[in-house]
Structure formats: structure tokens, C-alpha cells
Amino acid sequence: MSNQYKIGVIVGSLRTNSYNRQVAEALVKLFPDHFTFNFLDISELPLYNQDADKQLPSVVANFKSQIAECDGIIFVTPEYNRSIPGVLKNAIDHASRPAGNNSWNGKPAGILGISTGNISTAIAQQHLRICLASLNMPTMNQPECYLKWFEGMVDEQHNFAPKSQVFIQAWVDTYCQFIIRNVAN
């Protein structure tokens, strides 16, 4: 029997019909049964303020606790102004603090994103990789997954269109192996 792996999914967009949320919901359906997923809500986190490190707000403590329960993290992010959204950076900062209590430490990460633009989320993903490297998160390097949204990419049942599913399934399969190699058993 395979080990069970719990993966946290963080979507860097708060928009109700976010393309990245739709992709994330379809993505998790492509994993084998021994992978389970927890979508980590970043929408209620207050703006990071170092003064709060002395007494973490309960929403932050809960967020950090949820990360601690995960074997790995998948970030699904749009690109805003050639970088990651502020709400995602805020979540990263909260979970990395206070100093000496980095919840991200050692958590294997996968990154993908979708946009309507031709370069998709390439620059945002590079910025995210820089942040994750400083937090000691091993990050899957290949295959990279920069998706350009098209109408019908994800249907109402959260399934990918066939022309996208083959590519994304290759990413999923590689991420599964990455998790198995990087999670201490």
C-alpha cells in the first residue's frame, strides 16, 4: 500500500470565478487516491505586521497549523503587474514568522499558474521561486506549468479539456514523484 500524502493548495487569487481556482479544483482530480488535498484559505489573513508576532491572531495560528499538517504545498497563482499577488505574498510572510518559526521550512512545493496573457504567469512564478528558496522549500523545477486560459479549459464538473489534461497530467505525475522523494517517511 502506498503512503498517504496530504497536500495543501494555495490559490493566489481571491476572485470568485478565478481561473486559478478553477484550475486548482480540476488539478486535484488528476492525482492518485493516496494524495488528499486541503485548500488553504488566505482570504481572511490580516495584513502582515511584525508587531503581531508576539501574539499571533487566531486566523494566522490556524493557517500555520494547517500548513504543518501538510506533506507538501501546491501554489496556483495568477500574475499581477509582473509578480505574485499581494495576498499570496502576505500569506507567505505570515507563515514564515515569527523568526525561527517558519511553517514552510522543508515543505516540498509545486508551482503553476494561469493567465489570459501570452506569457502567462512566468514572471510571477520566478518571483515566487525566489521567496520559496529563502524559506527552505524544495521546489519542483520541471516541468514548468505556465497556462494560458481559454474558454472551456475547465468544465462545470472541474474537469480539464482533453487538450490541456495531457500536459497537466504530466505535471501531476512528476509532482507525485517529487513529493515521494522529498517527504521523509
Explain what the structure shows.
It is a single chain. The protein has 185 residues and is α/β, with parallel strands linked by helices. Helices cover 35% and strands 15% of the residues. The chain has five helices and five strands. The chain has a five-stranded parallel sheet, sandwiched between helices. Strand 3 (72-76), helix 3 (86-96) and strand 4 form a beta-alpha-beta unit. The longest helix has 21 residues, at 162-182. The radius of gyration is 16 Å and the shape is globular. The model has no long low-confidence stretch (mean pLDDT 93).
Mean pLDDT: 93
Category from helices, strands and their pairing: alpha/beta
Helicity level: 25-40%
- Find the count of extended strands (DSSP E, 2+ residues): 5
| Tally of helical runs | 5
- Name the helix and strand elements from N-terminus to C-terminus, one letter apiece: EHEHEHEHEH
Q: Identify low-pLDDT runs.
A: none
The CA-CA distance between the termini, in Å, is 13 Å
- Tell me the Rg in angstroms: 16 Å
Shape: globular
Strand order in the sheet with the most strands: 2-1-3-4-5
Give the DSSP E fraction (strand runs of 2 or more residues).
Answer: 5-15%
The major beta sheet can be summarized as: 5 strands, parallel
